[in-house]
């Protein structure tokens, strides 16, 4: 039987039966290492259950500003330094900086007389190291399709929270030793994850000139600002921002939804969770004061987590679809997000020191936060489609750019056919590779499936589309005269 024409009779599996493997690919555990660096941030710099003498009032701001600065610097240098995964010195520098930062923070516990000297260098080293780590993971997630990003990222959030819960039970010497290993573990896992990707899916070395997707950046910045106005009680509670019940619940909802529904999962559900949770959180504190902090913490952590998942999906999808540099795009988005979060936190802190007549400053900040959330929501509603460019355009029309656009049109058509004819997630992946003129052998290698499995999927695809050859498939995929690419 030829690879170009597969008969539609004699299937190896019942065509109507959908196995878990068909519905979703297996989850490589290495891809969940993103949650490890999230756990490190909370344990070392949020201090939800570890109290460091070096942790002054401004230490978290210094850490955040350094992280933001590193992200924005990398954004400016993205064309020269990207892709980051190919640069071993970046991994080494990140590991060294994060390890030294961890040692310094714990040293302030054992030698509190030196705490004032340790705080600043720890924050600077930690912020710079975590900036590199964030970009490495962003570069990895920018190589994945949205379904995998939603599943892996939400699962990583759960892994990060569970890591924090487990670490709370360790005595200080063990806590120090294991916390010091967290950055090394995260960096090792991201490096191994790149090794598991097919060569064709690795970050592109070709620079694509793409304007800033300002709608996505603005939307997340506004939500981050609103989150910053409510962040203070979250840090003073038993849970930190990465281990809060709201964070875990939303991550579980997204992960469970993707797991159960597969490619039928409606990503708009994420936004529908975020908006009411953020509004409720912004209304509770002004109305009930900090007596309502428990409910507010649940809502604010859940709402912000939902938006974080959504923006990860949007930005990674832009990188995945158009070959945009993840270092450049995530450097902008995360750098701006952190700055706006710090601004909201500062405004919230200042709220108790001023009043406009009989109006308490807390109400003013709450109103500003609500306006920010509503503004972010309006930006989202102007696009809503995950596959949109979110206000960005290509800045040149080179042959490489035209090829990217053409490939994306074919991918869009494949997605449309898959939805129209009820293809499974795995069948959708096979369909796209068929449209790219990939042979059966190449499809099996790229999808890590057993010998003969690709032919079974192709037979199912042909049956559902009522076609008998790849030539007929190309006819169905034609878009205004456009034929699938070699």
Q: Strand tally, please?
A: 2
Strand content: under 5%
**Stretches where pLDDT falls below 50 for ≥5 residues?**
1-18, 20-24, 479-486
Principal-axes geometry comes out as: globular
Annotation field: number of helices: 20
Mean pLDDT: 83
Order of helices and strands: HHHHHHHHHHHHHHEEHHHHHH
Q: How is the biggest beta sheet arranged?
A: 2 strands, antiparallel
Oligomeric state of the chains present here: single chain
Strand sequence of the main sheet, in spatial order?
A: 1-2
Q: How widely separated are the two ends?
A: 22 Å
Could you say which structural class the secondary elements and strand pairing correspond to? mainly alpha
Q: Roughly how much helix do the residues carry, as a percent range?
A: 55-70%
Cα Rg: 24 Å
């Amino acid at each position: 039987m030829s690879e170009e024409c597969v008969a539609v009779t004699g299937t190896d599996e019942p065509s109507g039966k959908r196995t878990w493997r068909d519905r979703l690919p297996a989850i490589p555990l290495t891809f969940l290492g993103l949650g490890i660096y999230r756990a490190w941030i909370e344990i070392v710099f949020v201090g939800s259950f570890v109290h460091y003498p070096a942790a002054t009032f401004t230490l978290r701001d210094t850490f955040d500003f350094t992280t933001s600065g590193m992200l924005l610097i990398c954004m400016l240098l993205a064309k020269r330094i990207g892709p980051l995964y190919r640069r071993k010195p970046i991994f080494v520098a990140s590991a060294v900086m994060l390890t030294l930062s961890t040692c310094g923070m714990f040293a302030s516990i054992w030698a509190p007389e030196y705490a004032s000297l340790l705080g600043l260098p720890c924050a600077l080293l930690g912020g710079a190291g975590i900036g590199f780590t964030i970009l490495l993971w962003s570069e990895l997630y920018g190589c994945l399709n949205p379904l995998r990003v939603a599943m892996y990222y939400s699962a990583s959030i759960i892994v990060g929270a569970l890591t924090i819960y487990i670490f709370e039970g360790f005595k200080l010497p063990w806590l120090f030793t294991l916390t010091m290993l967290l950055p090394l573990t995260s960096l090792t896992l991201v490096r191994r994850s790149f090794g598991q990707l097919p060569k064709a899916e690795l970050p592109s070395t070709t620079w694509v000139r793409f304007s800033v997707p300002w709608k996505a950046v603005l939307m997340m910045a506004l939500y981050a600002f609103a989150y910053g106005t409510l962040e203070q009680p979250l840090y003073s509670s038993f849970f930190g921002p990465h281990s809060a019940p709201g964070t875990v619940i939303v991550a579980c909802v997204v992960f469970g939804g993707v797991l159960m529904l597969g490619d039928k999962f409606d990503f708009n559900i994420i936004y529908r969770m975020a908006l009411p949770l953020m509004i409720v959180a912004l209304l509770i504190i002004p109305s009930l004061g900090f007596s309502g902090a428990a409910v507010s913490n649940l809502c604010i952590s859940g709402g912000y987590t939902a938006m974080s998942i959504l923006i990860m999906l949007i930005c990674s999808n832009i990188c995945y679809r158009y070959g945009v540099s993840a270092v450049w795009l995530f450097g902008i988005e995360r750098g701006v997000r952190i700055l706006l979060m710090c601004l909201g936190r500062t405004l919230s802190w200042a709220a108790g020191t001023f009043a406009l007549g009989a109006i308490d400053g807390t109400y003013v900040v709450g109103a500003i936060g609500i306006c920010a959330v509503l503004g972010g929501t309006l930006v989202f509603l102007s696009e809503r489609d995950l596959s949109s460019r979110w206000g960005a355009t290509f800045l040149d029309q080179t042959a490489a750019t035209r090829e990217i656009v053409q490939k994306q049109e074919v991918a869009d058509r494949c997605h449309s056919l898959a939805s129209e004819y009820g293809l499974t997630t795995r069948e959708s992946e096979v369909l796209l590779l068929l449209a790219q003129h990939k042979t059966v052998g190449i499809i099996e290698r790229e999808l890590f499936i057993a010998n003969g499995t690709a032919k079974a999927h192709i037979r199912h695809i042909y049956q559902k589309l009522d076609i008998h050859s790849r030539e007929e498939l190309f006819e169905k995929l034609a878009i205004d005269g456009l034929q699938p690419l070699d």
